[in-house]
Amino acid sequence: MNTEHKNAFGMIGLGTMGSNLLQNIADHGYKCAGYDISADKVAALNKLNPEAIQGFTDMNDFIDSLSSPKVVMLLVPAGKIVDGVIEELLEVLEKGDIIIDGGNSHFIDTDRRFKDLEKQGYHFIGMGVSGGEEGARRGPSMMPGGDQKAYEIVKPILTKIAAQVKGDPTVAYMGERSAGHFVKMVHNGIEYAIMQLISETYEVLKNGLHMKPEAIHSIFKKWNEGQLQSYLIEITRDILAYKKKGSDHLLLDDIKDEAKSKGTGKWTSQAAMDLNLPIPIIDIAVSMRDLSKYKDLRTKASKIYPDSEDFQYDNKNDNHVTKLEQAFYFAMVSAYAQGMHLLYRANEEYDYKLNLDLIAKIWRGGCIIRSEFLEDIYTAYQKNLKLKHLFLDNAIHQNLVESIPGIRTVVSEAARNGIAVPAFAAALGYFDNFRSEDMPANLIQAQRDYFGSHTYELKGKEGTFHTEWEAGN
Ligand code: 6PG
Q: Using a 6 Å cutoff on CB, does residue 409 contact ligand 1?
């Protein structure tokens, strides 16, 4: 086959993401190929754009259809399936070919695969892809990491299919080895945190302030036009207006209150714990998804523990909604700040060579956590690439200070009224400790030394010390 008639890009896994991404690639003038074990999926793909997209159920035919170096991207479920497909690919690819894992793989798996494939002479890119179905079709945000030379080869295609923000594509080389998947994992951790904050906001509006769906919808609509503008607020606005044809109530009200997850949020918390780096809003978001699954226990407890009946929200002149907007801003900033702090620390530990400004830049469009605030994050890191924590940026500091009254009111009113806002509370608790020169951790050190002779250090004095505490009583 003449090379120019060959396909420039191959995709394994023709689920919604794979098939939409191929259509996006074809829209930009590239011939491409898709492979899947499901004949139905291949048949469906072959109907989409036969001039530019070819579907295959035979691996050899699929690989033969690609120009060299062959570029094959995997969009298959994370875990063993990725290893299985790579093993199969090694039978048919040649050294120098490029494998891109575009799924939500765990970064430790990506490290292992990168090393194995490098040893064998293949190029491997672990790439986070965000934006869901619509993103894949119209422009996702992509976080490639690993083999930089290979990235340079696929860069022209990825740059064209990415979303564009102010003329810049939302794709960039993130860093070495598993950097791309680590960044995507943290993206998802922030996604979990913001989704939890939105659900708590909805809870305050619905069960605290007893607002009707139309009023709640209007609030999200208004917020999406201001400093809280973001994809997640935007879709929440739409969900809060969606009724099935002929229905008198929101579809949302019929949906079970048990949240599922595929693990990326949990991995973010695990990775952060391993690095001793606090990201409590993300941790709470993971835990509350888990708690939501204990429906039977919650149902039993709801029968034996009373609601808080003594208090009522003070909602004069919509005051509380304004406070809630401030509180959301405060906690959202904190969720991003914790995620970025984790990236900063991971970069030190794993020597990924990350650029935090570039990460903020490519998250401004295409991905699930895209938001107006990412412009501020981008600006902060552009001003100071070595910025250790977003709370220490001048502009962010200013806005954060202005929103403190909001978060204090929302957390305290919710506590008084028995409305659960654990992510807001975590944001406030994290902040109040973060801004404390003195934390009560001295007492923890004393306790550790008391029961376990773990020793402690003294202010202004070198060395470690131990006390026979019981003897002093
Ligand atoms: C994205 C999303 C996506 C993720 C879903 C579901 O950036 O497009 O992060 O990659 O798979 O959001 O994640 P959970 O099932 O864990 O909620």
A: no
Cα separation, 443 vs 95, whole angstroms:
59
Q: Tell me how crowded residue 329 is: count the other CB atoms within 10 A of its CB.
A: 21
Residue ranges of E strands in 247-354: none
pLDDT, tens digit, for every residue of 209-246?
999 999 999 999 999 999 999 999 999 999 999 999 99
Closest CA to 142 of 113, 165, 111, 170: 170
Q: From the CB of 34, is ligand 1 less than 6 Å away?
A: no
> Residue 354: which residues within 8 A CB-CB, separation 6 or more?
174, 175, 179, 183, 343, 346, 347
The yes-or-no answer on residue 184 being catalytic is yes
Q: What is the CA radius of gyration of the chain?
A: 25
- Alpha-carbon gap, residue 323 to 254, rounded angstroms: 29
340 and 356 in contact (C-beta within 8 Å)?
yes
The Cα 263–Cα 129 span in angstroms is: 16
**Domains of the chain and any CATH numbers:** 3-177 (3.40.50.720), 184-434 (1.10.1040.10), 441-472 (1.20.5.320)
Indicate the pTM of the whole model: 0.97
Set 191, 200, 234, 413: catalytic member: 191
CA of 143 to the centre of ligand 1 (A): 14
Summarize pLDDT for 431-444 with one digit per residue, the tens: 999 999 999 999 99
Ligand 1: nearest atom to the Cα of 188: 9
Distance CA 357, CA 162 (A): 18
Residue 150: phi and psi, rounded to 5, are -65, -40
* CA of residue 102 to ligand 1 center, whole Å: 13
Cβ of 413 below 6 Å from ligand 1 = no
Which amino acid belongs to residue 64? D
Helix (H) or strand (E) holding 396: helix 394-417
Where are any strands of DSSP class E within 303-373?
A: none
- 261 close to ligand 1 (CB < 6 Angstrom): yes
